[in-house]
Write a structure and sequence with these properties.
The protein folds into 2 domains: about 325 residues, no CATH class; about 40 residues. The chain is built from 14 helices and 2 strands, in the order αααααααααααααββα. The chain has a two-stranded antiparallel ribbon. The longest helix is centred in the N-terminal third of the chain and has 46 residues. It starts with a helix and ends with a helix. About 40% of the residues are buried.
Protein backbone atom coordinates (compact mmCIF):
# COMPACT_ATOMS: atom_id res chain seq x y z
CA UNK A 1 0.00 0.00 0.00
CA UNK A 2 2.79 2.39 0.93
CA UNK A 3 4.66 1.54 -2.30
CA UNK A 4 1.55 2.27 -4.39
CA UNK A 5 1.07 5.64 -2.68
CA UNK A 6 4.72 6.50 -3.23
CA UNK A 7 4.46 5.63 -6.93
CA UNK A 8 1.31 7.74 -7.25
CA UNK A 9 3.05 10.69 -5.58
CA UNK A 10 6.00 10.30 -7.95
CA UNK A 11 3.66 10.31 -10.96
CA UNK A 12 1.91 13.43 -9.67
CA UNK A 13 5.26 15.15 -9.09
CA UNK A 14 6.39 14.21 -12.60
CA UNK A 15 3.15 15.54 -14.09
CA UNK A 16 3.45 18.82 -12.18
CA UNK A 17 7.08 19.17 -13.25
CA UNK A 18 6.11 18.61 -16.89
CA UNK A 19 3.37 21.24 -16.63
CA UNK A 20 5.83 23.75 -15.16
CA UNK A 21 8.23 23.13 -18.04
CA UNK A 22 5.48 23.51 -20.65
CA UNK A 23 4.04 26.76 -19.24
CA UNK A 24 6.48 29.17 -20.98
CA UNK A 25 5.93 27.44 -24.34
CA UNK A 26 2.13 27.45 -24.02
CA UNK A 27 2.18 31.09 -22.89
CA UNK A 28 4.25 32.32 -25.83
CA UNK A 29 2.26 30.32 -28.42
CA UNK A 30 -0.98 31.72 -26.98
CA UNK A 31 0.44 35.24 -27.23
CA UNK A 32 1.11 34.73 -30.94
CA UNK A 33 -2.56 33.90 -31.52
CA UNK A 34 -3.47 37.07 -29.65
CA UNK A 35 -1.05 39.16 -31.70
CA UNK A 36 -2.34 37.61 -34.94
CA UNK A 37 -5.93 38.55 -34.12
CA UNK A 38 -4.79 42.09 -33.34
CA UNK A 39 -3.09 42.41 -36.74
CA UNK A 40 -6.17 41.38 -38.69
CA UNK A 41 -8.66 43.45 -36.65
CA UNK A 42 -6.38 46.50 -36.67
CA UNK A 43 -5.92 46.27 -40.44
CA UNK A 44 -9.70 46.39 -40.91
CA UNK A 45 -9.93 49.38 -38.56
CA UNK A 46 -7.15 51.29 -40.32
CA UNK A 47 -8.79 50.60 -43.68
CA UNK A 48 -11.92 52.27 -42.30
CA UNK A 49 -9.94 55.47 -41.66
CA UNK A 50 -9.00 55.33 -37.98
CA UNK A 51 -5.84 57.26 -37.06
CA UNK A 52 -3.11 54.97 -35.78
CA UNK A 53 -2.02 57.68 -33.32
CA UNK A 54 -5.48 57.68 -31.72
CA UNK A 55 -5.56 53.89 -31.79
CA UNK A 56 -2.34 53.76 -29.76
CA UNK A 57 -3.83 56.11 -27.13
CA UNK A 58 -7.08 54.16 -26.74
CA UNK A 59 -5.26 50.83 -26.83
CA UNK A 60 -3.02 51.62 -23.87
CA UNK A 61 -5.80 53.38 -21.98
CA UNK A 62 -7.77 50.11 -22.14
CA UNK A 63 -4.64 48.23 -21.14
CA UNK A 64 -4.06 50.42 -18.09
CA UNK A 65 -7.65 50.14 -16.88
CA UNK A 66 -7.75 46.37 -17.34
CA UNK A 67 -4.56 45.45 -15.51
CA UNK A 68 -4.26 48.20 -12.85
CA UNK A 69 -6.77 46.59 -10.40
CA UNK A 70 -4.86 43.31 -10.44
CA UNK A 71 -1.56 45.11 -9.83
CA UNK A 72 -2.99 47.08 -6.91
CA UNK A 73 -4.47 44.01 -5.21
CA UNK A 74 -2.03 41.20 -5.97
CA UNK A 75 1.22 43.12 -5.55
CA UNK A 76 0.34 45.53 -2.75
CA UNK A 77 2.67 43.72 -0.30
CA UNK A 78 5.54 42.89 -2.65
CA UNK A 79 5.71 46.03 -4.79
CA UNK A 80 9.22 47.52 -4.55
CA UNK A 81 9.80 51.16 -3.76
CA UNK A 82 9.99 53.40 -6.81
CA UNK A 83 13.38 54.98 -7.43
CA UNK A 84 14.45 57.61 -9.94
CA UNK A 85 16.36 55.13 -12.10
CA UNK A 86 13.47 52.68 -12.18
CA UNK A 87 11.08 55.46 -13.19
CA UNK A 88 13.51 56.55 -15.90
CA UNK A 89 13.62 52.98 -17.23
CA UNK A 90 9.81 52.82 -17.20
CA UNK A 91 9.67 56.13 -19.10
CA UNK A 92 12.03 54.76 -21.76
CA UNK A 93 10.11 51.46 -21.92
CA UNK A 94 6.87 53.38 -22.53
CA UNK A 95 8.58 55.40 -25.24
CA UNK A 96 9.98 52.29 -26.95
CA UNK A 97 6.83 50.16 -26.74
CA UNK A 98 3.55 52.09 -26.76
CA UNK A 99 4.86 55.12 -28.67
CA UNK A 100 7.65 54.25 -31.12
CA UNK A 101 6.96 50.58 -31.76
CA UNK A 102 3.17 50.78 -31.95
CA UNK A 103 2.95 53.95 -34.05
CA UNK A 104 5.53 52.84 -36.58
CA UNK A 105 4.11 49.32 -36.72
CA UNK A 106 0.57 50.57 -37.36
CA UNK A 107 1.89 52.97 -40.01
CA UNK A 108 3.73 50.12 -41.71
CA UNK A 109 0.66 47.90 -41.44
CA UNK A 110 -1.44 50.61 -43.09
CA UNK A 111 0.92 50.83 -46.08
CA UNK A 112 1.34 47.05 -46.47
CA UNK A 113 -0.66 44.04 -45.28
CA UNK A 114 -0.91 41.96 -42.08
CA UNK A 115 1.08 39.06 -43.54
CA UNK A 116 3.80 41.35 -44.89
CA UNK A 117 4.00 43.22 -41.57
CA UNK A 118 4.38 39.99 -39.63
CA UNK A 119 7.04 38.79 -42.08
CA UNK A 120 9.08 41.95 -41.55
CA UNK A 121 8.70 41.73 -37.78
CA UNK A 122 10.30 38.28 -37.89
CA UNK A 123 13.63 40.07 -37.81
CA UNK A 124 12.90 40.46 -34.09
CA UNK A 125 14.71 37.28 -32.94
CA UNK A 126 17.85 38.26 -34.85
CA UNK A 127 17.79 41.85 -33.58
CA UNK A 128 17.11 40.75 -30.01
CA UNK A 129 19.85 38.13 -30.10
CA UNK A 130 22.41 40.61 -31.47
CA UNK A 131 21.43 43.28 -28.93
CA UNK A 132 21.51 40.72 -26.10
CA UNK A 133 25.06 39.80 -27.14
CA UNK A 134 26.07 43.47 -27.29
CA UNK A 135 24.73 44.11 -23.78
CA UNK A 136 26.28 40.84 -22.53
CA UNK A 137 22.95 39.24 -21.73
CA UNK A 138 23.81 36.40 -24.13
CA UNK A 139 27.20 34.73 -24.54
CA UNK A 140 28.32 33.38 -27.91
CA UNK A 141 30.89 30.60 -28.05
CA UNK A 142 30.91 29.00 -31.49
CA UNK A 143 32.70 25.98 -30.03
CA UNK A 144 29.45 25.16 -28.24
CA UNK A 145 26.77 23.36 -30.25
CA UNK A 146 23.98 25.26 -28.51
CA UNK A 147 25.49 28.63 -29.50
CA UNK A 148 25.84 27.50 -33.09
CA UNK A 149 22.21 26.36 -33.01
CA UNK A 150 21.06 29.79 -31.82
CA UNK A 151 23.10 31.65 -34.43
CA UNK A 152 22.12 29.37 -37.31
CA UNK A 153 18.49 29.27 -36.17
CA UNK A 154 18.33 33.07 -36.10
CA UNK A 155 19.81 33.32 -39.60
CA UNK A 156 17.43 30.68 -40.97
CA UNK A 157 14.47 32.46 -39.38
CA UNK A 158 15.41 35.77 -41.00
CA UNK A 159 16.04 34.02 -44.32
CA UNK A 160 12.57 32.50 -44.24
CA UNK A 161 10.99 35.86 -43.45
CA UNK A 162 12.87 37.57 -46.27
CA UNK A 163 11.90 34.79 -48.67
CA UNK A 164 8.26 35.42 -47.91
CA UNK A 165 8.81 39.11 -48.58
CA UNK A 166 10.83 38.88 -51.81
CA UNK A 167 9.44 35.73 -53.45
CA UNK A 168 5.74 35.10 -53.86
CA UNK A 169 5.54 32.25 -56.34
CA UNK A 170 2.22 30.92 -57.51
CA UNK A 171 -0.92 31.14 -55.42
CA UNK A 172 -1.76 27.95 -53.56
CA UNK A 173 -5.45 27.10 -53.37
CA UNK A 174 -6.53 25.90 -49.96
CA UNK A 175 -9.72 23.97 -49.29
CA UNK A 176 -11.31 26.95 -47.56
CA UNK A 177 -10.22 29.50 -50.23
CA UNK A 178 -11.40 27.81 -53.42
CA UNK A 179 -14.57 29.89 -53.58
CA UNK A 180 -13.09 33.12 -52.20
CA UNK A 181 -10.68 34.26 -54.92
CA UNK A 182 -12.86 34.67 -57.96
CA UNK A 183 -11.57 36.51 -61.03
CA UNK A 184 -13.50 39.66 -61.72
CA UNK A 185 -13.54 43.44 -61.55
CA UNK A 186 -13.34 43.48 -57.76
CA UNK A 187 -10.23 41.31 -57.73
CA UNK A 188 -8.59 43.50 -60.38
CA UNK A 189 -9.36 46.60 -58.30
CA UNK A 190 -7.86 45.01 -55.20
CA UNK A 191 -4.73 44.02 -57.13
CA UNK A 192 -4.38 47.54 -58.52
CA UNK A 193 -4.79 49.08 -55.06
CA UNK A 194 -2.16 46.72 -53.64
CA UNK A 195 0.25 47.73 -56.42
CA UNK A 196 -0.14 51.41 -55.47
CA UNK A 197 0.83 50.89 -51.83
CA UNK A 198 4.03 52.46 -50.61
CA UNK A 199 5.78 49.21 -49.76
CA UNK A 200 9.19 50.83 -49.30
CA UNK A 201 7.97 53.37 -46.76
CA UNK A 202 5.96 50.68 -44.99
CA UNK A 203 9.03 48.43 -44.82
CA UNK A 204 11.13 51.20 -43.27
CA UNK A 205 8.44 51.89 -40.67
CA UNK A 206 8.27 48.20 -39.79
CA UNK A 207 12.05 47.94 -39.42
CA UNK A 208 12.06 50.90 -37.01
CA UNK A 209 9.21 49.30 -35.05
CA UNK A 210 11.09 46.01 -34.80
CA UNK A 211 14.23 47.76 -33.54
CA UNK A 212 12.19 49.51 -30.86
CA UNK A 213 10.52 46.23 -29.84
CA UNK A 214 13.86 44.42 -29.58
CA UNK A 215 15.19 47.25 -27.41
CA UNK A 216 12.11 46.92 -25.19
CA UNK A 217 12.81 43.20 -24.71
CA UNK A 218 16.34 43.94 -23.50
CA UNK A 219 15.45 46.84 -21.22
CA UNK A 220 12.39 45.11 -19.75
CA UNK A 221 14.48 42.10 -18.75
CA UNK A 222 16.93 44.43 -16.98
CA UNK A 223 14.17 46.48 -15.32
CA UNK A 224 12.53 43.39 -13.82
CA UNK A 225 15.72 42.72 -11.86
CA UNK A 226 15.35 46.09 -10.10
CA UNK A 227 11.55 46.28 -10.00
CA UNK A 228 10.38 42.72 -9.42
CA UNK A 229 6.64 43.36 -9.75
CA UNK A 230 5.54 42.36 -13.27
CA UNK A 231 1.91 43.49 -12.95
CA UNK A 232 2.82 46.89 -11.55
CA UNK A 233 5.55 47.34 -14.14
CA UNK A 234 3.11 46.53 -16.95
CA UNK A 235 0.56 48.99 -15.56
CA UNK A 236 3.11 51.77 -15.29
CA UNK A 237 4.41 51.16 -18.82
CA UNK A 238 0.89 51.31 -20.26
CA UNK A 239 -0.08 54.39 -18.21
CA UNK A 240 3.06 56.39 -19.03
CA UNK A 241 2.81 55.23 -22.64
CA UNK A 242 -0.78 56.52 -22.81
CA UNK A 243 0.32 59.98 -21.63
CA UNK A 244 3.20 60.03 -24.11
CA UNK A 245 0.92 58.87 -26.94
CA UNK A 246 -1.57 61.67 -26.17
CA UNK A 247 1.19 64.25 -26.59
CA UNK A 248 2.30 62.66 -29.88
CA UNK A 249 -1.30 62.54 -31.17
CA UNK A 250 -1.91 66.24 -30.45
CA UNK A 251 1.33 67.02 -32.27
CA UNK A 252 0.50 64.92 -35.35
CA UNK A 253 -3.32 65.19 -35.56
CA UNK A 254 -4.75 68.72 -35.54
CA UNK A 255 -8.43 67.80 -35.87
CA UNK A 256 -10.48 66.88 -32.82
CA UNK A 257 -12.74 64.68 -34.96
CA UNK A 258 -10.09 61.93 -35.02
CA UNK A 259 -10.82 61.25 -31.34
CA UNK A 260 -14.42 60.24 -32.02
CA UNK A 261 -15.10 56.54 -31.56
CA UNK A 262 -18.35 54.57 -31.50
CA UNK A 263 -19.51 50.99 -31.00
CA UNK A 264 -17.83 49.78 -34.17
CA UNK A 265 -14.69 48.08 -35.45
CA UNK A 266 -12.55 50.97 -34.17
CA UNK A 267 -13.69 50.37 -30.59
CA UNK A 268 -13.17 46.62 -30.99
CA UNK A 269 -9.66 47.16 -32.34
CA UNK A 270 -8.71 49.47 -29.45
CA UNK A 271 -10.25 47.27 -26.74
CA UNK A 272 -8.86 44.01 -28.15
CA UNK A 273 -5.39 45.45 -28.64
CA UNK A 274 -5.40 47.05 -25.20
CA UNK A 275 -6.74 44.17 -23.14
CA UNK A 276 -5.24 41.19 -24.99
CA UNK A 277 -2.04 42.32 -26.69
CA UNK A 278 -0.94 45.08 -24.32
CA UNK A 279 -1.97 44.32 -20.74
CA UNK A 280 -2.06 40.52 -20.84
CA UNK A 281 0.75 40.22 -23.37
CA UNK A 282 3.09 42.63 -21.56
CA UNK A 283 2.55 40.78 -18.28
CA UNK A 284 2.98 37.26 -19.66
CA UNK A 285 5.92 38.36 -21.77
CA UNK A 286 7.60 39.82 -18.70
CA UNK A 287 7.13 36.61 -16.71
CA UNK A 288 8.57 34.48 -19.52
CA UNK A 289 11.55 36.79 -19.97
CA UNK A 290 12.18 36.73 -16.24
CA UNK A 291 12.48 32.94 -16.27
CA UNK A 292 13.82 32.19 -19.77
CA UNK A 293 15.39 35.41 -21.06
CA UNK A 294 14.56 37.85 -23.88
CA UNK A 295 15.77 35.68 -26.78
CA UNK A 296 13.44 32.83 -25.78
CA UNK A 297 10.46 35.19 -25.70
CA UNK A 298 11.20 36.78 -29.07
CA UNK A 299 11.92 33.45 -30.78
CA UNK A 300 8.19 32.68 -30.92
CA UNK A 301 7.31 35.73 -33.03
CA UNK A 302 7.63 33.86 -36.39
CA UNK A 303 4.61 31.76 -35.45
CA UNK A 304 2.45 34.89 -35.57
CA UNK A 305 3.11 35.29 -39.29
CA UNK A 306 1.90 31.79 -40.07
CA UNK A 307 -1.27 32.33 -38.03
CA UNK A 308 -1.90 35.71 -39.70
CA UNK A 309 -1.45 34.21 -43.16
CA UNK A 310 -4.15 31.64 -42.42
CA UNK A 311 -6.48 34.12 -40.71
CA UNK A 312 -5.94 36.63 -43.53
CA UNK A 313 -7.01 34.07 -46.10
CA UNK A 314 -10.26 33.60 -44.18
CA UNK A 315 -11.13 37.16 -43.14
CA UNK A 316 -9.35 39.44 -45.64
CA UNK A 317 -9.39 37.00 -48.59
CA UNK A 318 -5.60 37.19 -48.92
CA UNK A 319 -3.89 34.68 -51.19
CA UNK A 320 -1.41 32.18 -49.76
CA UNK A 321 1.63 31.86 -52.03
CA UNK A 322 4.23 29.15 -52.48
CA UNK A 323 6.97 31.47 -51.25
CA UNK A 324 5.02 32.01 -48.06
CA UNK A 325 4.75 28.29 -47.42
CA UNK A 326 8.47 27.67 -48.02
CA UNK A 327 9.37 30.66 -45.87
CA UNK A 328 7.11 29.40 -43.10
CA UNK A 329 8.88 26.04 -43.09
CA UNK A 330 12.26 27.78 -42.79
CA UNK A 331 10.97 29.99 -40.00
CA UNK A 332 9.67 27.06 -37.96
CA UNK A 333 12.98 25.21 -38.48
CA UNK A 334 14.95 28.22 -37.30
CA UNK A 335 12.59 28.72 -34.37
CA UNK A 336 13.15 25.22 -33.03
CA UNK A 337 16.90 25.54 -33.54
CA UNK A 338 16.94 28.64 -31.32
CA UNK A 339 14.71 26.95 -28.74
CA UNK A 340 16.97 23.90 -28.64
CA UNK A 341 19.95 26.15 -28.01
CA UNK A 342 18.14 27.93 -25.18
CA UNK A 343 16.96 24.64 -23.67
CA UNK A 344 20.50 23.25 -23.65
CA UNK A 345 21.83 26.47 -22.12
CA UNK A 346 19.27 26.33 -19.30
CA UNK A 347 20.16 22.70 -18.61
CA UNK A 348 23.86 23.57 -18.32
CA UNK A 349 23.13 26.48 -15.99
CA UNK A 350 21.05 24.26 -13.71
CA UNK A 351 23.85 21.68 -13.67
CA UNK A 352 26.38 24.35 -12.72
CA UNK A 353 24.13 25.74 -9.99
CA UNK A 354 23.71 22.23 -8.60
CA UNK A 355 27.50 22.07 -8.20
CA UNK A 356 27.18 25.13 -5.93
CA UNK A 357 29.87 27.17 -7.60
CA UNK A 358 28.13 30.52 -8.12
CA UNK A 359 29.87 33.77 -8.98
CA UNK A 360 28.34 36.71 -7.10
CA UNK A 361 28.32 40.23 -8.49
CA UNK A 362 27.00 43.43 -6.98
CA UNK A 363 23.46 44.49 -7.80
CA UNK A 364 20.71 46.73 -6.47
CA UNK A 365 17.22 45.52 -5.61
CA UNK A 366 13.98 47.44 -5.99
CA UNK A 367 14.38 49.12 -2.60
CA UNK A 368 17.88 50.39 -3.35
CA UNK A 369 19.65 47.82 -1.15
CA UNK A 370 22.83 46.19 -2.37
CA UNK A 371 22.36 42.50 -3.00
CA UNK A 372 24.16 39.62 -4.69
CA UNK A 373 23.06 38.42 -8.10
CA UNK A 374 24.26 35.01 -9.23
CA UNK A 375 25.25 34.94 -12.89
CA UNK A 376 27.10 32.21 -14.77
CA UNK A 377 28.58 32.93 -18.17
CA UNK A 378 30.29 30.60 -20.64
CA UNK A 379 33.69 30.66 -18.92
CA UNK A 380 32.16 30.18 -15.48
CA UNK A 381 30.07 27.27 -16.71
CA UNK A 382 33.20 25.57 -18.03
CA UNK A 383 35.01 26.25 -14.75
CA UNK A 384 32.07 24.84 -12.84
CA UNK A 385 32.09 21.67 -14.90
CA UNK A 386 35.88 21.26 -14.52
CA UNK A 387 35.77 22.00 -10.79
CA UNK A 388 32.87 19.59 -10.40
CA UNK A 389 34.88 16.80 -12.01
CA UNK A 390 37.93 17.69 -9.90
CA UNK A 391 35.84 17.68 -6.75
CA UNK A 392 34.43 14.28 -7.63
CA UNK A 393 37.94 12.90 -8.26
CA UNK A 394 39.20 14.35 -4.97
CA UNK A 395 36.29 12.82 -3.11
CA UNK A 396 36.97 9.44 -4.70
CA UNK A 397 40.68 9.66 -3.81
CA UNK A 398 39.83 10.66 -0.24
CA UNK A 399 37.46 7.73 0.08
CA UNK A 400 40.17 5.36 -1.13
CA UNK A 401 42.67 6.72 1.41
CA UNK A 402 40.12 6.38 4.20
CA UNK A 403 39.32 2.84 3.08
CA UNK A 404 43.00 1.91 3.42
CA UNK A 405 43.68 3.89 6.59
CA UNK A 406 40.74 2.60 8.61
CA UNK A 407 41.64 -1.14 8.41
CA UNK A 408 45.29 -0.30 9.25
CA UNK A 409 44.21 1.69 12.29
CA UNK A 410 41.91 -1.12 13.40
CA UNK A 411 44.74 -3.67 13.09
CA UNK A 412 47.06 -1.44 15.14
CA UNK A 413 44.46 -1.06 17.90
CA UNK A 414 43.79 -4.80 17.89
CA UNK A 415 47.55 -5.46 18.35
CA UNK A 416 47.59 -3.17 21.36
CA UNK A 417 44.67 -5.03 22.93
CA UNK A 418 46.35 -8.42 22.46
CA UNK A 419 49.55 -7.11 24.03
Amino acid sequence: MAVAQQQQQQRQATGESLMQKCKPYVAMVSLQFGYAGMNVITKVSLNHGMSHYVLVVYRHAFATLSIAPFALVLERKVRPRMSFWVFLQIFVLALLGPVIDQNFYYAGLKFTSPTFSCAMSNMLPAMTFVMAVIFRMEKVNLKKARCVAKVVGTLVTVAGAMLMTLYKGRAVEMVWTKHMHLHGPHQDAVAAAAADKDWLRGSIFLIIATLAWASLFILQAATLKRYDAPLSLTTLICFVGTLQAIVVTFAMEHSMSVWKIGFDMNLLAAAYAGIVTSSIAYYVQGLVMQSRGPVFASAFSPLMMIIVAIMGSFILAENIYLGGIIGSVLIVAGLYSVLWGKHTENAEKKEAEAMEIPVAIKGVDGNGRVMDIVELDEVQLEKAQVNGKAAAAAAHEHAAVVAVAVPAEEARMQGKDEA
